[in-house]
Amino acid sequence: MPLVLATTTPGEPEIFASVQGEGPSAGAPCTFIRLSRCNLACVWCDTAYTWHFDGDDRTHRDDKTFERKANQITLEIADVAARIEALGQSRLIITGGEPLLQAGPLAGLLELLPDMTVEVETNGTTTAPARLDIRVDQYNVSPKLAHSGNAAELALIPERLRSYSGDARAFFKFVVATPEDVAEVAELVRAHALPKKRVFLMPEGTQSAVLREREQWLTQCCLDHGFRMTDRLHIHLFGDTRGT
Question: In which pathway does it act (predicted)?
Answer without folding.
Answer: Purine metabolism; 7-cyano-7-deazaguanine biosynthesis
